[in-house]
Design goal:
This protein is mostly beta strands and 291 residues long. The protein has a domain at 46-74 and 178-283: Beta Barrel (Thrombin, subunit H). Helices cover 14% and strands 36% of the residues. The chain is built from 4 helices and 15 strands. It has helices spanning 2-16, 67-75, 129-132, 272-284; strands at residues 20-22, 34-35, 79-92, 104-118, 124-127, 135-141, 147-156, 161-166, 190-195, 203-215, 228-232, 244-247, 252-259, 267-271, 288-289. The strands form 2 sheets. The chain has a 6-stranded antiparallel beta barrel with strand order 3-4-5-8-7-6. Strand 6 and strand 7 (147-156) form a beta hairpin. The two termini are 37 Å apart. Mean pLDDT is 85; it is low at 1-23.
Length: 291
């Protein structure tokens, strides 16, 4: 026991001295979709087997005192909190010099949390790729407290998307949110964000779409894939990542992804148009196989 404590203290000392660094590669915009073994059963399937689309993305909905409450209640059971155990690759260095050929490769255990939502009654759900990156165990919890083990079907590191699958032991269908068309929303449209901020559980925030097609990175590679985000002032906090951005018709038009640090009202969501592209690649079997 003393040896374990001593080793832990030594490792912590390395971490605090800057001698432990994350061993993660920069994501290239040419990175393909990552297809896990569970994606094999989807190859050649129709989109209706993976997600259901909304008939109406936006409408001139009257803003009564309980309009937000009504929409939030309708989608609540389809939104989940995601909890993961991770093993992150790191380099342990005896000297604080960050060179590729120095250091000892190791893995750093950790935990993380995020949000997600069901897009099909059979148990397919979406979240952000960064929520489940390096995960060894993924669990999702519904609003009624039911806990499920989730498996990864496919991920898209460039668009920060992950498709997961949950199997209901009793065969019951899952509540889901229909997909809206993000190309139909405009600045000023009212939206609702639902997620698990800081582990507090289901939380609803609201705001408007501030901008569409927002690029956050310099597009240097002509053949690269670059995400263009929906910008919103609906609050997106740590743990809300992967939750849905929903219009007043109850259709989701994006995945809440990030908020600029030290800002107020500047959040971003991956639009459903990019999700459809990601799902099309999965259904066609286009991507890198992950064993």
């Amino acid at each position: 026991m003393k040896k374990i404590l001593a080793a832990s203290a030594l490792f912590l000392a390395f971490a605090l001295s800057g001698c432990v660094s994350m061993n993660e590669e920069k994501i290239s915009p040419e990175t393909p979709v990552q297809l896990h073994p569970a994606a094999d059963e989807l190859k050649g399937a129709a989109p209706i087997n993976l997600y259901l689309a909304s008939q109406t993305t936006v409408a001139d909905v009257p803003m009564r005192s309980r309009t937000i409450q009504r929409v939030a209640a309708a989608v609540d059971s389809a939104v989940v909190s995601i909890y993961v155990k991770t093993e992150t690759p790191v380099k342990v260095r005896l000297i604080p010099i960050n060179l590729s050929f120095t250091g000892i490769s190791a893995t750093l255990p950790g935990v993380g949390l995020g949000s997600g939502f069901f897009i099909h009654p059979s148990g397919y759900l979406l979240t952000n790729e960064h929520v489940i990156r390096n995960a060894t165990d993924i669990r999702v919890m519904t609003s009624n407290g039911t806990d499920y083990i989730a498996r990864v079907v496919a991920t898209d590191p460039v668009y920060d998307l992950a498709l997961l699958k949950v199997v209901s032991p009793n065969g019951l269908k899952f509540a889901f949110i229909p997909m809206g068309d993000s190309t139909r929303v405009r600045g000023g449209d009212h939206v609702i964000a639902v997620g698990n901020p800081l582990g507090f559980g289901h939380t609803v925030t609201t705001g408007i779409i501030s901008h569409t097609g927002r690029g956050l990175f310099e597009e240097e590679e002509p053949n690269g894939r670059y995400a263009r985000y929906i910008q919103t002032d609906a609050a997106i906090n740590p743990g809300s990542s992967g939750g849905p951005l929903i219009t007043l018709t109850g259709a989701w038009i994006g995945l809440n992804t990030a908020q600029i640090a030290n800002s107020q009202g500047i959040g971003f969501a991956v639009p459903s148009a990019l999700v459809k592209e990601f799902i099309a690649n999965v259904l066609e079997g286009q991507g890198a196989k992950i064993e």
